[in-house]
Amino acid sequence: MGDNGEFRLASSAIDHEGRLPRKYTSEGQGAQKNKSPPLEWYNLPEGTKTLALVVQDIDAPDPNGPIVPWTVWVVVNIPATLKGLPEDFSGNQQGLGGDYAAIQEGNNDEKVPGWRAPTLPSHGHRFEFKLYALDDHLNLGNKATKEKLLEGIEGHVLGEAVLMAVF
Question: How many domains does one find in the chain?
Answer without folding.
Answer: 1
